[in-house]
Amino acid sequence: xxxxxxxxxxxxxxxxxxxxxxxxxxxxxxxxxxxxxxxxxxxxxxxxxxxxxxxxxxxxxxxxxxxxx
Amino acid sequence: xxxxxxxxxxxxxxxxxxxxxxxxxxxxxxxxxxxxxxxxxxxxxxxxxxxxxxxxxxxxxxxxxxxxx
Amino acid sequence: xxxxxxxxxxxxxxxxxxxxxxxxxxxxxxxxxxxxxxxxxxxxxxxxxxxxxxxxxxxxxxxxxxxxx
Amino acid sequence: xxxxxxxxxxxxxxxxxxxxxxxxxxxxxxxxxxxxxxxxxxxxxxxxxxxxxxxxxxxxxxxxxxxxx
Amino acid sequence: xxxxxxxxxxxxxxxxxxxxxxxxxxxxxxxxxxxxxxxxxxxxxxxxxxxxxxxxxxxxxxxxxxxxx
Amino acid sequence: xxxxxxxxxxxxxxxxxxxxxxxxxxxxxxxxxxxxxxxxxxxxxxxxxxxxxxxxxxxxxxxxxxxxx
Lengths: 69, 69, 69, 69, 69, 69
What we know:
By secondary structure, chain A is mostly beta strands.
């Protein structure tokens, strides 16, 4: 399987909270991960992003797609 | 700082590839992370997601927002 | 009307399931569609995407915007 | 393979346009599809969405994830 | 026209920067706007969001869909 | 704080509607804003977007990330 996405993180389901239409699922990440972000070059320059910089990677839960093989 | 997002992962910039309008930045995740996903309850049920299940969490790089403090 | 999006698919509402805050709506696609994806060039190369290849196009329901004229 | 997404559309690659960081890929949809959208209940009510209504489903190309098996 | 989205902001194009595959367009907002966000109830509670609170609304440019009538 | 996003809009919480898993929050924008969109160059050309053009910027509420400092 090959995914058209830069981030594919191995994880294990920790909890499932079912709502009427949407559900919230939590996971433990099981292997050290690298991640990737695409943003405007303008943002990269304004932030002054350089190798070694510490950042926080913020991702809304709605953008995380679980795949079960 | 409080973010309206379930995922906030500490990371360090590894590389920056600048394009004309968009750039691709890669990161090393510096601490073991838990992650969260919101999906339809219908998807949770069709996938049969239960605690302990192994999954792959797929996230397009465009949805990853770096924040530098 | 012109939309800044590559995908605009004609469809007919099949069902509506209303929740407290979010709702899930299903549609029958009424005309054969072509679709487009934007992804990193790195992903295209790792996947080895070439004309003729069979793929599955996965789209979270949250990213589908219905417009009623 | 089970995906945490309501839309999984069979398609065939038609063209690939590679850019420096991002690429645009076009597809022919190979089977008639049904699609699903999640939106706020407030939007559903303001739009007055009912079974049988004709709509346009607008999806930015960046939200389409190709998967190659 | 009715859109399945809570945010529809009137604006005027200020500049267009065309890249090989993606372009960056800037706008002046022409009318005072209200905006809406959907997030997990868990996030709302952890943030302690209450009427009157000052916040910053962060939106990646990729999630903004221009429509020209 | 520097965000890897082109849009950061100052706003004040107007109302909070909590659901079982997801909540809908509304805001008054407190300062006139400029906004930015990234879309395919192909879309820019088909729309014929030029400085001065009037547009509607449509953003699903799910893509709006509130940050509280």
